[in-house]
Design a protein that fits this description.
The complex is a heterodimer of chains A (397) and B (255). Helices cover 47% and strands 9% of the residues of chain A. Chain B has 255 residues and is an alpha/beta fold. Chain B has a single domain, classed as 3-Layer(aba) Sandwich (Rossmann fold). In chain B, a hairpin with a 2-residue loop joins strand 7 and strand 8. The N and C termini of chain B lie far apart (66 Å). The mean pLDDT of chain B is 94. Classes of the chains: A alpha/beta (397), B alpha/beta (255). The interface between A and B is medium-sized, with 23 and 13 residues.
Chain lengths: 397, 255
Amino acid sequence: MNATEVAERSFEAKVLEAVPDGERLRLCLECGNCSGICPFGYLMLYPPSRMIAMMRADRINKVLETDTIWMCVSCYACTAVCPSKIPVTPGLMTSIKEELLLVGNVPAELQNALANSQRYGNPLGESPRKRADWTMGIQPEVKVMAKHKQPVDVLWFVGDYASYHPRVQSATKALARVLNALGVDFGILGAEENSDGDSQRLAGERGLFEMLAEKNGRAFSKYQFNKIITSDPHAYNALKNEYPALGISYPLQHYTEFLAERIDQIKLLLKRQISARVTYHDPCYLGRANGVFDPPRELLCAIPGVELAEMTHNHSNSLCCGGGGGGMWLDGFQWEKAHVRLSDWRVREAINTGAEVLAVACPYEPPRFEDAAKTMPGADKLKVRDIAELLAEAMDV
Amino acid sequence: MMNIVVLAKLVPDLVEELTIDASGAALDLTFARWIINELFDDHAIEQGILLKERSGGTVTVIAPDLEGADDVLFTAAAKGADRLIKVRSDFSAANNHAVARAFSAIIKGFQPDLILTGVQAHNDLDGSAGPLLAESLGLPYVGYVSGVALADGKFMVKKEYPGGLIAEMEVTLPAVFGIQAAEQPPRYVAVSKVRQAMKTSSIEEMDASDLDLSGAPEIERMFQPEAAAHAEMLEGTPEEVSAKLVALFKELGVL
């Protein structure tokens, strides 16, 4: 066996070991459903089914010479439709990105986000010391665990974009006010919180993911709390499905699940009417990957005046905003290949429902959808709102 | 076999707010985060490794013992550097004159063919480190270098000039080069490879002689930028603003 053969064989072995049901890869029927449903499959030289064929032909090195795998946004659409239940996203696509990363076949803009995550603990390249700056002005004050030094009921894992992105901070502040209005005893890690690392992992940086997870794990272990909630579906996915294997395991809820459990208490506080037709975008890592579909809808329907309208693609068939799996850091690269953004398609669907509000529950989405709405004909009246922002508005907090 | 030495300078990270210390003439470095001079020294490392990959040789990366030096060195090892040196002394307040003297004493012992530095850094208050190092070593220096090649036993460098001019020069080694840009952007190395490098390579520590800070200009005052004049904002509706703007252009004689 020569070195190339070793590399090819070890790639298959790697996929088989990457996820518990990795051996299902051998059950591929070559039906092509995965490549057909992939939003960018038509631009990939080797979409998933073809990649599996190449692997079976011991020619995976050919695939490693191409860069169109970086069109994959880890949206799980392929995984959801596979009749053989092959873990295409977490097994095959993530493993091939790991290989690309090791051979240095990485678009420059993605490198920056990874290097920033390594150095600062967030992909945006912001100072870790400023991670809790968004809390300024919130009353009662948001407790930062290192200062508070007391147990809390709920530890809120805020996440990168929710902490730093100026547009998303508005949703983060809204959630803080909603939690305060409900009298929730919560705290945050502030400067001790690092990126959850999930999108970096799905972009092939497993080592970076483990480093970030270990840092978060050490921070969690310093404090007492009953459960973790998070604003970020990517953090939710990491904490729920990936951290336990590293020995980091806590009861966990996405904020929409946490709030939906308190729906009766919330209903009493919803004083203001929001008379609008609202459509809801299922984030890939809340919906399709983790099956949380109903709590966000329950919250929206509880708001007086809200009329919920579904887009053509909804629930497990939702369309990705384009930010997952490293897509958040590949905008330029993907635009060059596609000349379209996935967020454009989603915003067009939202317009077609006749909705005035596109409701979201993931920090990647407000900037992505608002950017798309700026250029999409007919979207001038479409407002993008996080569910937390709508609740805060209806509660008048 | 070319013996390549890369000097990696560490600089305060501008992601953190800069504050002036009590003396009013220096940065307060109490909470500074030290990172590699990434716009240039990262390119010097990349260029050294590209040269080694192309023409053979060894790459030694040498850095001052500041917090963050280990990361810089192990990352360089993961990229392909062969030898890692950390120079011990109190570098946090050192100027480039002192850095150049301290490093030249150590580098001299390595008998390098080629010494690469970043062409400049944002804390070069007393001139960039490369020419000072060359002076101290008594070697020729070429700065603003954006490509190096060994061909037919001759060493050629590309030097960038303002206005888009590029010169190709033949240089007799040993020499010091200030790298403006490597021939390709610095490569990304996976964290797993850096972690592996931490296990398989080791950092040699060497002591620098007492730092000699002489030769640099004395700083009288260091301060945040102060606004000397303000822009005038034109208020009103778009129509009013454009009318004011047209009047202003006429007044200035450009319309």
